[in-house]
Amino acid sequence: EDTADAVSDMHWKQLQKLRELCEAAQEGGLELVMDVAKVMKSDFDSAFCNFLNFEIEQEEGRLRGLGIEPVGETARWLAFPPAKEDGERLAVANTSPEAESTPNGVEEQQWLLVLRVVKQGVYALLARERDEDIKQVRNILNLASPESRRDLTLLTLEQLSPEEAVAFKATIARIRDNLSVQRDARDADLFSKVSQLQQFIEEQSF
């Protein structure tokens, strides 16, 4: 019973996150989703991403059950007017000539389109965060001495929130795993340096 309650509570929390993001998508497209997602980014763990993908799969299944082929994740079904920050603002397209000419249209697929906007916003934010971590790891690895690499690694972690620190350490671990089979001397050198970063982190109990 306790396990069932915990699962139910987790589902409710994920649903609340998704509802807030969907409201943002309906009100302001991708631009507003990104703004809301920045505030909620600490909530975007793998469990939420899996929940979001599950909801998209369920909606696609519902549409197929009605004899409607779900729209693909392409610009054909989306409008891209200009945005201030991201260069492109993604809005649900419900007046596209292509949409009006198709037998299925988009009226029945509006919820799927909203979910896709949410997914694009969340994934874009997560990708941006990972890119920043990768750039910082590259900066650290370019330092000449082990002492300099240690100092910048620890300083970086001290300036991050707990959630950001977890993501940063995960990026380091992922890079190390990708280098576990070295193709040449450069790969071997990078693997050694990244392993050293992990050792610095463990020694300081970050």
Write a compact overview of the structure shown.
The chain is mostly helical.
Task: Give a description of the structure.
- This protein has 206 residues and is an all-alpha fold.
- A two-stranded antiparallel sheet has the order 1-2.
- The longest helix is centred in the first third of the chain and has 39 residues.
Q: Which overall shape is indicated by the principal axes computed on the Cα atoms?
A: elongated
Given as residue ranges, the uncertain stretches (5+ residues, pLDDT < 50) are: 74-103
- Helical fraction equals over 70%
Can you count the beta strands? 2
Question: SSE string, helix = H, strand = E?
Answer: HHEEHHHHH
Computed structural class: mainly alpha
Kindly provide the radius of gyration, computed on alpha-carbon positions and rounded to a whole number of angstroms. 21 Å
Strand order of the largest sheet: 1-2
Tell me the span between the first and last alpha carbons: 36 Å
Please give the oligomerization state of what you see: single chain
Mean pLDDT: 78
Number of helices: 7
Approximately how much beta-strand content do the residues carry? under 5%
Report on the biggest sheet. 2 strands, antiparallel
Essential attributes:
single chain; 206 residues; mainly alpha; two-stranded antiparallel sheet; 71% helix; elongated
Helices and strands in order, then pairings?
Layout: H1 2-40, H2 46-65, E1 78-79, E2 91-92, H3 97-101, H4 110-141, H5 146-159, H6 162-178, H7 185-203
Antiparallel strand pairs: 1-2
